[in-house]
Every structure is written in structure tokens, then in C-alpha cells.
Amino acid sequence: MADEKIVKKAAAEVKKETTAEVKKAAATGNKDFKLWAALCYAIPILVPIIVLATEKKEDKKLQFHAWEGLILGVAWWVVSFVLSFVVIGLVCFPVGWLGLLYLAYKVYNGEETVIPTVTEMAKKQVK
């Protein structure tokens, strides 16, 4: 009888520890996802390529943010380059980067971002 109580008590403690570890891992994974998703916008082109080239691409939501960040980053660089021949391009680059940082902030806080054409293109890329 005493042995059964000890075994049950030990099993209950192991279950509590395992549950705590699972919760901790889930919380850490959520922070990891939020960080990578925000970095896809804050450092466009480079981070999305890293996400799409590694095992992180298995997460469909992160893959969506990587595609959206990549598309926005390429568009931002092209528009800034083309407009740099005019004085407007000098203003376009920092304003565009501030816009990308704002999107990174929204994604990190868990808000949904909808950019009319880009969101549709990114959704088509995620399979």
C-alpha cells in the first residue's frame, strides 16, 4: 500500500513537471514565432530568405509572413531605387523603412496585417 502511494505521488510530480515544461516550450515557441515574423518585416529580403530556406518554413503562418516580408522588401527597394534618381526617392527610402518597422511592431503584438495586393500574393505562395 505504501509503495503504491509513493509511486502515485511520484507519477503526479512527473506529470506536473512535464506539463510545466510543455507550457514553457509553448510560450517560448510563441515568442520565437513572433520574433521571426517581426524580423521578416524589419529586415526585409534577408530574413524572409533565411526563414524560407530553413526548417522554420514548416510553420504556415511564419511562411506567410516571410513571403509578405520578401515581397514588400523587394517592392520597397525597387521603388526606392527608381525614385532615387529624383529627390523623392531620398524621402521614400526612410519612410518605407518606417512603414516596415510599423508592420513588424503590429505582427509582434499579434495583430493581423492586410496589405491589399501583397497579402493576396503571399497567401498564394503558402501551400
How large is the share of residues in beta strands?
under 5%
- Tell me the overall shape: elongated
Mean pLDDT across the residues is 80
Helix content: over 70%
> From N to C, what is the helix and strand string?
HHHHH
Number of domains: 1
Question: Can you characterise this structure?
Answer:
The protein has helices at residues 2-42, 46-53, 60-83, 88-108, 116-125. By secondary structure, it is an all-alpha fold. The chain has one domain (2-125).
Write the layout of secondary structure elements.
Layout: H1 2-42, H2 46-53, H3 60-83, H4 88-108, H5 116-125
Short description:
82% of the residues lie in helices and 0% in strands. The chain has helices at 2-42, 46-53, 60-83, 88-108, 116-125.
